[in-house]
UniProtKB/TrEMBL annotation:
<dbReference type="InterPro" id="IPR011008">
    <property type="entry name" value="Dimeric_a/b-barrel"/>
</dbReference>
<dbReference type="Pfam" id="PF01037">
    <property type="entry name" value="AsnC_trans_reg"/>
</dbReference>
<dbReference type="InterPro" id="IPR019887">
    <property type="entry name" value="Tscrpt_reg_AsnC/Lrp_C"/>
</dbReference>
<feature type="domain" description="Transcription regulator AsnC/Lrp ligand binding">
    <location>
        <begin position="6"/>
        <end position="77"/>
    </location>
</feature>
<protein>
    <submittedName>
        <fullName>Lrp/AsnC family transcriptional regulator</fullName>
    </submittedName>
</protein>
Amino acid sequence: MQTIFVNIKCELGKAYEVADQAVQTVEQVSEVHSTSGQYDLMLKCFLGDQDDIGHFVTDSIQTLPGVKDTFTIVAYKAFN
C-alpha cells in the first residue's frame, strides 16, 4: 500500500466543489482537508503497491473540475 498526499490549488470559489467531487468519485481518496496557504485542499490517498502515482494524479485528481494545480507528496512511513 502506498500513501500519498496531494495538495490542490483550486479555481476561485471551487474548493468545496472539488472536495466533494474527490470524496464522491475517487475511491483511493481517504480524507480531504481544507488548508491555508498556497494550496486550498490536501487529499490523503491510498494506492495499491503496483499503482502508478503519476498516472493516478494526472488521470484521477488533475482532471477533477475546478483543479488548477497539484503538488504530490509521497509518504514512506506512518508513526503512531
